[in-house]
């Protein structure tokens, strides 16, 4: 029992460490964004640091994830073959995410909900440094977040091959995903969590991290056009 508790605490610590590393990369880009107008050379240096740190973090995540898949992997996560059925279901999952986004947009337009602070900050950053922030928000952030909230999270805490474990894992993964995007408990948190639940469901169904990454990328791409 003591061994299980110690291992769980260690994995929670690792997951927090991964998230902090991801936030540090984001912080480098924020500094580049904030200095872009007044100090272009300083901004360029921060962009270089962002690229190096982001690349190293991505390689580290990929290596660790592959190591996990070769070890304890009862759900048989890995890289699956693309089929017509999988493409059709991928489209269905994306349609569900699009439905959540459209509902969210209507609630904001009709002043039922305020625009999420997270989204406002993203828009402000894009206005200051469009190319880099759009690339980061559409491609880099979804990849990092799917490794953390789906790949590592399920392998660490919900890898037992039972229906109950799957449902609980989806619920907890989505709630954490939502909370860390709003840092409070509100209706906006619920909407972010809904996207997280869809992404977690896709990961468990397809058993391939590339599918939730693809869904996340498409979702973020639509949000900037």
Detailed description of the structure:
With 225 residues, the chain is mainly α. The chain has one domain (2-224). The chain has 8 helices and no strands. The relative contact order is 0.13. Pfam families: Rce1-like. This is Putative protease.
Question: What labels describe this entry?
Answer:
single chain; 225 residues; mainly alpha; transmembrane helix; protease; hydrolase; Rce1/LyrA-like_dom; endopeptidase activity
Cα shape: globular
Q: Structural class of the secondary elements?
A: mainly alpha
Low-confidence stretches: none
Helix content: over 70%
Q: What share of residues are in beta strands?
A: under 5%
Count of helical stretches? 8
Q: Give the total of beta strands.
A: 0
- Average pLDDT, all residues: 92
- Radius of gyration computed on alpha carbons: 18 Å
Q: Strand-and-helix sequence, N→C? A: HHHHHHHH
The rounded distance between the terminal residues' Cα atoms is 51 Å
Largest sheet: none
Return the domain count: 1
Keywords: Hydrolase, Membrane, Protease, Transmembrane, Transmembrane helix
Protein name: Putative protease
Organism: Secundilactobacillus oryzae JCM 18671
Pfam families: Rce1-like (PF02517)
């Amino acid at each position: 029992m003591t061994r299980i508790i110690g291992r769980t605490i260690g994995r929670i610590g690792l997951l927090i460490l991964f998230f902090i590393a991801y936030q540090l990369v984001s912080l480098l880009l924020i500094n580049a964004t904030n200095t872009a107008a007044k100090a272009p050379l300083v901004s360029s240096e921060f962009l270089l640091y962002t690229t190096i740190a982001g690349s190293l973090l991505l390689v580290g995540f990929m290596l660790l994830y592959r190591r996990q898949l070769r070890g304890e992997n009862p759900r048989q996560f890995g890289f699956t073959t693309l089929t017509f059925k999988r493409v059709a279901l991928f489209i269905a999952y994306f349609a569900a995410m699009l439905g959540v986004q459209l509902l969210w947009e209507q609630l904001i337009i009709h002043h039922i909900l305020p625009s999420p602070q997270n989204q406002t900050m993203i828009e402000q950053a894009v206005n200051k440094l469009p190319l880099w922030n759009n690339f980061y928000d559409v491609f880099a952030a979804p990849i990092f977040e799917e490794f953390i909230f789906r790949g590592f999270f399920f392998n660490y805490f919900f890898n037992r091959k039972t229906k109950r474990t799957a449902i609980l894992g989806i619920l907890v993964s989505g709630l954490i995903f939502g909370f860390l995007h709003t840092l409070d408990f509100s209706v906006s948190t619920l909407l972010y969590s809904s996207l997280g639940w869809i992404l977690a469901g896709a990961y468990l169904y397809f058993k391939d991290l590339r599918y939730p990454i693809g869904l996340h990328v498409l979702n973020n791409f639509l949000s900037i056009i």
